[in-house]
Design goal:
Largest sheet: 2 strands, antiparallel
Oligomer: single chain
Helix content: 25-40%
Distance between the termini: 50 Å
Strand content: under 5%
Length: 594
């Protein structure tokens, strides 16, 4: 099976350095043949395909933290400041829900904005190159496929920009000289442009591919479903157009993915560890990871399940038998070992810091306490507890295999050595039940999505802070959740409940939802149960419209910052002030509230 590997390609139009003779006149003479432009830098179709490969690389840069400790940029991907995640005491400098310090000048807004425009620029470069007469294509189908991929990436960038920033400048041609006169178009026009792009290239994307990580038709269909929901919500807010028709179109696109016969939820155990259970040792050093320190030998067996299988190394790709995998980012250990052994730093960003706050009960940085976590963000109590309270508790996604709440003491000679530590002790609650902030924000249940039972590369000297595992961008459950949302918004509450129950049935939930349960909050709760650590929560909250984002941020934040400082209504991030200031020839209006 071929695996799609990313290669970073900088496509820059610049003068090349060249060697000349010692003759002064020759040195001073202009030689325009050495100046590269869009018209002469490309000579083969393979060069254009390399540019498209750079689109994949840019998407991975945006969505998969793997190369730098940039909390400002990755506040976006990690969901910092949403209802799902807040910051621990050790990350106050990176808090992203204190609106007394967040403004249009905050670096995160600028970095995300420019990252998506960089993707647009790369896609526009590829599209401009496809129009060159000197390019020889193996077939018209090869050319159509290249154009389709580039148009997809451009549409994908604009969908994200529209959801996050609303109306933004629409740049559809390659820009080779500085411009200071961009104008914003409406949020609706951004969505419509993205829709038109995806619908135009839909039939030139293949149904399936041999190379893992490459775009397929379902990726575009999924994005069209989301875009039509975005369009319908915007129509409702503006009081214009037929919103229900937009929601119905979203349902139709989702149907093609869900009911098309290519994808299906994984119901039975599968993949590289289908016959195994998670295996943890209560051990604060490598030498203590012996059979007599196994959780199972201490009477705490953890049973594997199909949801756990979804996040085991080697199981993420459709080509490997995972029929609910639609689009993944490729992270291969052998490849990255050659390039400096980079992998996603989800474990570092998301996992707890028992070595600082575990006290005399559980310490270290082994698998039992989540590896070498640095707690860039921490799950709110909404994420760790509230969504599983009462009738919602019986859920495979709440099992110890998936969301491990059982932490055994690993300090020999102490009271809880080899025994489950009560969370009130881990949280250092006092006699009045008051939790200690440092302990509570740095210690929490560990998801198998970010804290596995073994780390690849440890034998080669890697620490337990990186995951070398392909990363989901789209799984079928998210398409199902989008369809449920579209049905709910279109008024088909029972149909929406049926979709939600597809996921709850797979998760062996005791409680199945009813039409009476259906509302935006339930959709968001189920997305949290299914997609935590996967979805980009900022997009989800902001595209909901109204005050959904600020209401939920205020309700579920651990710290009081948003409750005391979030005094404005917003469902858009600000246009970065640097962008406004640089665009000196035309005034770019700021979003309301900023």
């Amino acid at each position: 099976m071929k695996t799609f590997k990313y290669k970073k390609l900088g496509v820059i139009l610049l003068s090349a350095l060249f060697l000349v003779s010692c003759n002064d006149n020759a040195f001073l003479k202009e030689n325009p043949e050495t100046i590269y432009t869009i018209d002469n830098i490309f000579t083969t179709s393979s060069q254009i395909n390399q540019v498209i490969t750079s689109c994949y690389e840019q998407v991975r840069y945006i969505y998969c933290p793997y190369d730098s400790w940039d909390m400002e940029f990755y506040a976006y991907r990690l969901g910092n400041g949403t209802d799902l995640f807040d910051v621990p005491t050790i990350r106050f400098g990176n808090r992203f829900n204190d609106y007394s310090i967040l403004s249009s000048q905050s670096g995160a807004y600028y970095k995300v904005y420019t990252a998506f425009y960089q993707l647009i620029n790369i896609a526009n470069t590829a599209l401009a190159a496809t129009e060159l007469e000197q390019i020889a294509w193996a077939s018209e189908a090869e050319k159509a496929h290249a154009i389709a991929e580039a148009r997809f990436f451009r549409a994908f960038a604009y969908r994200n920009l529209g959801e996050l920033y609303g109306g933004v400048p629409l740049v559809t041609t390659l820009v080779t000289t500085p411009r200071y006169d961009y104008t914003r178009v409406s949020r609706m026009k951004i969505y419509q442009f993205a829709i038109d792009e995806l619908e135009a290239c839909l039939n030139d994307l293949p149904e399936t591919v041999a190379e893992t990580g490459r775009l397929v038709k379902a990726v575009a269909l999924h994005n069209l479903c989301q875009l039509y929901i975005d369009k319908g919500v915007t129509m409702q807010e503006e009081g214009s157009g037929d919103a229900k028709s937009a929601f119905e179109q979203a349902i139709q696109y989702a149907n093609e993915v869900i009911d098309g016969g290519i994808y299906q939820l994984m119901i039975n155990r599968f993949g590289t560890r289908a016959n195994e259970d998670p295996q943890f040792y209560y051990a604060n050093n490598q030498a203590a990871q012996t059979s007599d320190h196994l959780y199972s030998n201490a009477g705490y067996s953890i049973e594997g399940n199909v949801f756990w299988d979804l996040f085991q190394v080697g199981n993420q790709d459709y080509q490997a038998g995972n029929k609910e995998s639609i689009w993944t980012l490729q992270i291969d250990y052998d490849v990255y070992k050659k390039e400096g052994a980079k992998g996603s730093i989800y474990a570092a960003y998301y996992c707890p810091v028992f070595r600082d706050q575990g006290g005399s009960y559980a310490i270290g940085s082994m698998e039992d306490v989540g590896g070498l976590g640095t707690c860039g963000v921490m799950p709110t109590f909404y994420t760790r507890d509230i969504i599983y309270e009462g009738k919602w508790a019986d859920d495979m996604r709440n099992s110890d295999a998936v969301f491990r709440r059982t932490i055994l003491g690993n300090v020999e000679g102490t009271e809880y050595y080899g025994k489950a530590i009560p969370w009130n002790l881990l949280y250092k609650e006092d006699a009045n039940g008051q939790k200690n902030d440092a302990a509570t924000t740095q210690l929490y249940p560990i998801s198998c999505k970010v804290g596995p039972d073994y780390y690849t590369g440890v034998e080669d000297g890697e620490d337990r802070s990186r995951l070398f595992r392909d990363d989901y961008l789209i799984r079928l459950p998210e398409t199902i959740l989008l369809r449920a949302e579209a049905k709910m918004r279109a008024g088909n509450l029972q149909g929406a409940a049926n979709d939600i129950n597809m996921l709850r049935s797979r998760a062996k939930c005791d409680y199945l939802v009813t039409a009476a349960d259906m509302n935006v909050d339930l959709i968001l709760d189920e997305r949290a149960r299914e997609l935590v650590y996967e979805e980009v929560r900022w997009n989800t909250l902001l595209r909901m419209g109204g005050t959904v984002a600020i209401d939920r941020i205020k309700k579920y934040a651990y710290w009081d910052y948003p409750r005391t400082t979030l005094n404005k209504e917003f469902n858009l991030w600000p246009i970065p002030q640097t962008v406004i200031d640089t665009n000196k020839d035309v005034k770019l209006e700021q979003n309301p509230g900023w």
